[in-house]
Amino acid sequence: MRLNEIALKLGLEARAGAAGLEAAVLGGYAGDLISDVIAHAGPGVLWVTHQTHRNTVAAAVLKGLAGIVVANGREPEKETLEKAGEENVPLLVSGLSTFELVGRLHRLGLSGVER
Amino acid sequence: MKELQADLHIHTCLSPCAEKEMSPRAVVRQARTMGLDLIAICDHNSAENVEAACRAGLEAGLAVIGGMEICTREEVHVLAFFKDDHALACAQTMVYESLRGKNEPEVFGEQVVMNERDEVAGLNSRLLIGATDLGLEEVIQVIHSLGGMAIAAHVDRPSFSIISQLGFIRQDLGLDGVEVCSERPPEVPVELAVLRSSDAHRLREIGCRSTRFLMGAPTAPEVEMALRRFDGRCVLASEGG
Model's pTM, two decimal places? Predict the structure, then answer.
């Protein structure tokens, strides 16, 4: 499934890196500790988080993630938006809580990363 | 130039998670017993026991730096050391303005403010264990604007550390050093000074880890120069695991 299709279905709003919305999403991961995401998420994964710091973008580039969704109505910091734009990392926001958002992603057929 | 032993991360009974035995005088006494030349008092998001500890230190002949362990919006703990009372008070005000919530002593523990005679002067009612609204970069900027030093606390711990929360340490953050706990610390940018300190929440933990400095005197300005390897001053070794 493509990221723009998911965004449309779940009402996610792209804040930066919209050029990457054509990317295929292969799975999902949720977490607020960037160290944990670096350790466990992989290429093509859509990352749901509360973390709004610019280091999220670096982690997404490092791991080849499909994109980042900041949940629960939080907004990314200005530097994070700039960084996401520079690196072409899709950065989206959702008013849904992490729990609700992840539930809906599952219903669309996405599954989590197997450890 | 002298070799001086410092433990620059010690809590007092003001931190809700610290033992009640951590009164300013008792902390100073134990630090002397452990042979330390210099300590820094770093309670969570507050410096209200620094004055009492400094006075106790003055009496006991132990140098005490006033500091704080600030929790950023990303839940990264940053140690702030200041060179004077005014800077510390300003930092305190800014932290309080960006800290929400009330402490629940039954859940988190009491937050006891003491005077220099080790008498209870009051209880702090703020949620000191909470996170401020200030981002990591903002906290570092605030500390530097007040002439202080910003040290990333316990970077090798699985929680509340810059690496656990933010994945890695960006070189351009402007940190003055990092504090490590384990015997084999993680890789950190080479230009950063590496400190060891106890993060003591109990008396018996004071000095269990410490840093040996080569510097002119046990003062905050000298520590700053040592962190920057200025004019012959430096961190000689950090000890304890």
Answer: 0.88
Residues of B in contact with A34 (CB under 8 A): 165-168
Q: What is the pLDDT of residue B98?
A: 97
Residue B63 backbone dihedrals phi, psi, to 5 degrees: -75, 135
Option in B164, B168, B170 nearest A33 (CB): B164
Between positions 127 and 156 of B, the ones with CB within 8 A of A are 135-137
* ipTM surpassing 0.85: no
* Residue of B150, B127, B161, B134 lying closest to B73 (CA atoms): B134
Closest CA in chain B for residue A51? B74
Which helix or strand (DSSP H or E) is residue A75 part of? none
Bridging pattern class, strands B120-123 and B112-114: antiparallel
What does the domain layout of chain A look like in residue ranges? Answer: 3-107
Task: Report pLDDT digits (tens) over B111-140.
Answer: 999 998 999 999 999 999 999 999 999 999
pLDDT (tens digit, 0 to 9) for every residue of chain A, 115 residues total? 999 999 999 999 999 999 999 999 999 999 998 988 988 999 999 999 999 998 999 999 999 999 999 999 999 999 999 999 999 999 999 999 999 999 999 999 999 977 6
DSSP SS3 for A38:
helix
Chain B residue with the nearest C-alpha to that of A39? B167
Rounded to a whole number, what is the largest CA-CA distance in chain A? 33
> Could you tell me which CATH number the domain at B2-239 has?
3.20.20.140
Domain borders along chain B are: 2-239
Question: In this complex, do A35 and B165 lie within 8 Å of one another by their Cβ atoms?
Answer: yes
Question: What residues in A contact B168, CB-CB < 8 Å?
Answer: 34, 55, 58
* CATH dotted code for A3-107: 3.40.1390.20
